[in-house]
Amino acid sequence: MKANKDLLIVLVAAAGLAVVAVALAQSDTKPAAEPSVDEIVKRANLVAYYQGADGRARVKMTIVDQQGRTRQRELTILRWDAPSPEAAKKGFDAKKADQHAGEQKFYVYFHKPADVDKMAFLVWKHLTKDDDRWLYLPNIDLVKRIAGGEKRTSFVGSDFFYEDISGRRIDDDTHELIETTDKYYVLKNTPKDPRSVEFSYYKMWIHKKTFLVVKTVYYDKNDKAYRQYEAKAVKQIQGYYTVVKSRMTALLTGRYTDLEYSSVKYDLNLPEDIFTERYLRRPPTKHLQDE
Amino acid sequence: MIRLLATTVFGLGLAVLLPGAAVHAQAQRAPGGDEPALPAGLEESPKPKGEPNLPAGLEESPGGEPDLPTGLEGPTATRPAKKEPNKPVSFLDAMKDLGFSGFVEARGGVRTQRDHYEDQASIGEARLQLEWERVFKDVRFKVTGDVVYDQVDPERGHVDLVKGTGWFDLREAWTSFSPVSWMDVKLGRQVLTWGTGNLLFVNDLFPKDWQSFFVGRDLEYLKAPSDALKLSVFSGLADVDLVYVPRANPSRFISGRRISYYSSMLGRRAGQDAVIRTEDRDEWFDDSEWAGRISRKLGSYELAAYGYWGFWKTPEGFDPLRNLATYPRLNAYGGSIRGPLPRGIVRVEGAYYDSSQDRQGDRPFVRNSEVRLLAGYETDLPEIAPELNLDVQYYVELMCHYDEYVRSLPAGVPARDRGRHVVTIGLTKKLMNQNLTVGLFSYYSPTDGDAYLRPKVAYKIDDHWTVEVGGNVFFGRSRHTFFAQFARDTNVYASVRYGF
What we know:
heterodimer; A: alpha+beta; outer membrane lipoprotein receptor (LolB), chain A; globular; B: 18-stranded antiparallel beta barrel; 3-stranded mixed β-sheet; 5 helices
């Protein structure tokens, strides 16, 4: 009987061990507490492009070429988020972070250099079709419509692309979690339509605690890194972790562009009608300035 | 452990398979170790094992993972309070803070052939543009003025703010405000533009400066200012703009003063020997113009309807008794649509030009009524080259009473075709990080058999200096058609500008 009892203990212990082992094995590939890849991507996208229901920032852009010569741009960006398609269906709750991860509108007002001073640029970012873009040239009072298809071209001559500023659609890539470190989720993102982009994939280091993208490296078809984004400084503004300094480097030439964000403000209650032709022709000065 | 092994194997594999990549990665950081440091502001505070905090941005992580950026390093790693040394404010920055900006420019150009009626030089000017813009209590003020010395302008001493001659050109002097939230008012001298054409205008009957355009001034000078009151009313249904010009603002047209043209009266080309004299519409309120637009969006498409009640913008009439060119009355009604097509922007615009002093079309010295149509498409061509843009347009002017026109045409005056068809092709390529722009805009008329080419290369040396070279090339098989008449005005120009 005692022997049976011992056997039972051994069996139970073995079974317990097996369970633990299986659990451990599972946790090694997919720790129970870790969010899924989709969740990471979604949250990183929210943090990067959708914090607050709207926002404003003054951006100083410094472009440094191979010879160390610099060019500067200064602009103010206003952002307005529409309710996300799901939220619009279920009932919109502005307080929830993911409620406005849908269409967006951007108003960009240029201050410097002289040749773009007072120009305004308007973007209606869509989820399922090309963005609508308008450029206003104040000297000739011209509202010019710009084709919104080419997203991976330089934004105002910098190393940042349009898509880096306004965000790349999550669904345009497939995402793999290739590594989890103490601080980061490391993701490999592969484009679904490789012909539409110049990279063959890119890796992102996403800060686990805040879901901020700290670094992105783009690789060409020979697996050579050629383009790199780095978050250089982060500030908590109105509770939102915000990248206030970042750099995009063209690794093959060494040319880079630094972005410095100042007077960042969220949840300003910007009226949606700012993002129309009316305010291209007549800048919304009140909303462009820090009160 | 397994993960570490996998990483190592993966790293080795990368190194073996892609020696080039591995070497490159090493230059940056070890493979698998290209992880970024957390930026300032993202660093965790209590470090395991009590290791000390490295200064912001230097945080080396296990496995060479990226350092946290400043700001992610937690409360202990606050950045040292770096105080910006008081930078001396430059004069130009101080001016900018006060609302001033502008440029200084030198621009010179010559005809590439001799023209018996004009100077060899097409332009030779020094220009200072000073702009001032301020907002006081929601009321915006702007004044832009150009001081010009143009060697070629025979009238440089005589300032005429409407005709744009002389050493001073007032381009803007207006105030704008919103008396109620749904209305904008803009009052004063202002540049006005609407419609969808690219260097072709159908419903935009605001004044142009063709002379500046043809001698190669900056594109900004194609639009001449209006002295106007503009009222804009905005509603969810549609936006309405109404423009009142109390004294007509004609275009700055080709008069022969510095660009030669074909004179149908003389039956030959003419220039400074036969400068067109006009009977100006210069009576305040009697010679007023009205223009209106109703516009709205439909999805991504922009729809607009336009109206204009005033005068032909160029002297399209003639008074043979006094030998004066005249500005007959003109009303215009039109519409436009603009929006995205796959890969580009399409636009269609049309208007009926009611030449109300010649409704039957049988008056020989007043231009006939016309229908004008425009269709255009603009797209980027990434397959051919990055940052290459193509714009094509088809444009037609159709005379409404052609038989009457032909019947009443004075003897010896070459008859126009019923329709004047024009195709434009604009190609723009940006290079060297958008600092170099190479462009060619061409007009070609298959019916007139003439063409106008505008090649241009502009380079931004830095944030202030821009240099530009370009040309205005006219040719055609007859001498009287629209572009061909300027064949002897073909010119090249160069400019250098400092913007501030």
